Structures are given as structure tokens and as C-alpha cells.
């Protein structure tokens, strides 16, 4: 409607300009719609645990002469409170990776340390499901970037691999250096033997709050923000993330990040002039 009216008015200026204007309006509208969706999603995600907490606290008061019921309700209150804490923490992480320039305090980060940290973060969950975790090829590799953000990105991928896999399967983390035109990159691949992701969903899983199966994600404490955080971290580091997956066979998420030596060499070739 509006875009068409504008295009009719400026048509005499030439079709190229019209096209640019229409594209601009469409993009501005898309951004506005995404922002509105995000706020609506956050509100909904916050309301769910808060509503549950409110109901459960009423139940506790009503059951005050039944100590067992009080225990049960209190346990569920704890789960909802944890869910709320996770969500708020992930919202803070997301806003940080969207707004801060990670390269302000970039440094060479040891890949074996990143991997060890990610594995540690999931050790408990993997243990209860008897999932074996194995890492290889990490020795002597360094990526260039913000240590905290890189750890969050890899940690999210390993956490997902464990969460979306059945018991007694294997999660592998493989690292290697690959040659690239602009300088060497480090590739970090997280492979699981889990439920996999359909082609249709593959296009959407990096969106904020998108989950293939919201009930399952919630059960494992997921917020639907993990992969959005991963996407932002790799983008701001000049890297990329790709996914290969086959349903009911498993998935591989691959991070490609600048190698520390290569990033430093690039900086020396183009020294800051001021
Ligand atoms: P969540 O907190 O729900 O895990 P993410 O942003 O990390 O949110 O992931 C989005 C969705 O992508 C998940 O809900 C899940 O449906 C799907 N997904 C992510 N990683 C995997 C994986 N390794 N195997 C299967 N599905 C996955």
C-alpha cells in the first residue's frame, strides 16, 4: 500500500531509485516486525514461569497442613525459578553479544581450553545420559577473539548436542586449521548422534526463540536463544557457523573462526594509521 504509493510518486525519477526506496521501506518494516515479535516473545517467555510461580505459591499456602505436598510444590517452584534465571541470563548474554564489540579485548585463545570449558559445562548432563564426549585435534591451535564470547558459543553447541541426543550416544568435538584466502581459519565441529533437524527447520533454528519442539526444549532448560547467541558471536568475529544434519541420525555444527596468528598477521599488514 504505502510502498506502492511512494513508488508511484517517484516513478518519474527512474525505476532504479524506485526499487531502492521500495526495498528500503520493506527492510525497515521487516526490522520493525522482528523487533515487535521479539518483545512479544520475551514477554510470553517471562510470563510463563512467573505465572507458574504464582500458582505454586498459592498451592503451598493452601497445603500448609500437608508437609509432603509443600515439599513437592516447593520443588517445582525451584525449577521455575531456575528457568527464569536462565532466561534472564541468556537475554543479558544476547544483548551483550549484539551490542559490544568483542574485538575490543580480543586475544589469542587456546582452542583446547575452549573445548575443555565447553565439555566441563555439560559433564553433569552428559553423565546422567551416559553420553561419551571426545575431543580431538585441538593441540597448538589458537583462535583470535573474545574469550568469554567464544566460550559461550562453543558451550551452547556442545550443550545442544547433549540435550538433543538419546542416552548412550557420542558427542565429538574436532578442531583443525584450514587455509582460507584472507588467512588461516580454525574449524571447530561439534557432532552428535541425536534427533537431527529437518531441512525446513535448519533455516530457522538460528532465530531468537525458534525451537523445533518447544516442550522438549523447555524440559531441558532451553531458552531458544542459544543459537542466536552463537550466530552473533561468530558474525562479529568475522567467522561463520554452518549446520549439517540428517533426521534421526544426528547433526554437525561447524564454527569457522579466524586463527590467532593469521589475524595478527593481517593486522600487521594493514597497520592502523592513526
Ligand atoms: P534451545 O535453548 O531450545 O536449545 P537453541 O537456540 O540453542 O535453543 O536451539 C534452537 C532449536 O534448534 C532447539 O530448540 C532445537 O529444536 C534445535 N537444535 C539445536 N541444536 C540441535 C541439535 N544438536 N540437534 C537437534 N536439534 C537441535
Tell me about this structure:
This protein is α+β, with helices and mostly antiparallel strands and 274 residues long. 57% of the residues lie in helices and 17% in strands. It has helices at residues 2-10, 15-62, 67-99, 111-128, 147-163, 199-202, 214-219, 226-236, 260-269, and strands spanning 107-110, 132-136, 142-145, 170-178, 185-192, 240-246, 250-258. The strands form two sheets. Strands 2-4-5-7-6 form a five-stranded mixed beta sheet. The protein has a two-stranded antiparallel sheet with strand order 1-3. A hairpin with a 6-residue loop joins strand 4 and strand 5. Helix 4 (111-128) packs parallel to helix 5. 27% of the residues are buried.
Q: Which parts are unreliable, with pLDDT below 50 for 5 consecutive residues or more? A: none
Q: Helix tally?
A: 9
Helix content: 55-70%
Question: What summary fits the major beta sheet?
Answer: 5 strands, mixed
Order of secondary-structure elements: HHHEHEEHEEHHHEEH
Q: Which shape, going by the Cα principal axes?
A: globular
Q: Give the terminus-to-terminus CA distance.
A: 49 Å
Question: Briefly, what is this?
Answer:
With 274 residues, this protein is α+β, with helices and mostly antiparallel strands.
Question: What would the keywords be for this entry?
Answer:
alpha+beta, two-stranded antiparallel sheet, 274 residues, 7 strands, five-stranded mixed sheet, 17% strand, globular, 9 helices, binds adenosine-5'-diphosphate
Amino acid at each position: 500500500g504505502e510502498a506502492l504509493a511512494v513508488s508511484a510518486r517517484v516513478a518519474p525519477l527512474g525505476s532504479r531509485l524506485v526499487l531502492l526506496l521500495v526495498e528500503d521501506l520493506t527492510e525497515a518494516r521487516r526490522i520493525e516486525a522482528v523487533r515487535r515479535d521479539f518483545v512479544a516473545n520475551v514477554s510470553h517467555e517471562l510470563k510463563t514461569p512467573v505465572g507458574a510461580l504464582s500458582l505454586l505459591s498459592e498451592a503451598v499456602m493452601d497445603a500448609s497442613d500437608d508437609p509432603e505436598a509443600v515439599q513437592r510444590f516447593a520443588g517445582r517452584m525451584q525449577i521455575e525459578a531456575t528457568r527464569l534465571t536462565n532466561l534472564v541470563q541468556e537475554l543479558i548474554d544476547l544483548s551483550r553479544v549484539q551490542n559490544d564489540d568483542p574485538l575490543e579485548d580480543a586475544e589469542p585463545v587456546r582452542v583446547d581450553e575452549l573445548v575443555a570449558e565447553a565439555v566441563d559445562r555439560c559433564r553433569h548432563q552428559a553423565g546422567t545420559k551416559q553420553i561419551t564426549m571426545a575431543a580431538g585435534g585441538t593441540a597448538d591451535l589458537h583462535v583470535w577473539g573474545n574469550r568469554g564470547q567464544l566460550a559461550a558459543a562453543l558451550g551452547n553447541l556442545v550443550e545442544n548436542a547433549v540435550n538433543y541426543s538419546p542416552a548412550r550416544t557420542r558427542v565429538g568435538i574436532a578442531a583443525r586449521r584450514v587455509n582460507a584466502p584472507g588467512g588461516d581459519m580454525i574449524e571447530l565441529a561439534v557432532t552428535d548422534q541425536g534427533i537431527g533437524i529437518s531441512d525446513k527447520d535448519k533455516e530457522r533454528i538460528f532465530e531468537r526463540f525458534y525451537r523445533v519442539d518447544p516442550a522438549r526444549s523447555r524440559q531441558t532448560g532451553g531458552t531458544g536463544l542459544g543459537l542466536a547467541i552463537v550466530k552473533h558471536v561468530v558474525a562479529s568475529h568475522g567467522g561463520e557457523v554452518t549446520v549439517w544434519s540428517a533426521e534421526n541420525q544426528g547433526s554437525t555444527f561447524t564454527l569457522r573462526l579466524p586463527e590467532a596468528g593469521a589475524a595478527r598477521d593481517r593486522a600487521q599488514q594493514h597497520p592502523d594509521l592513526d
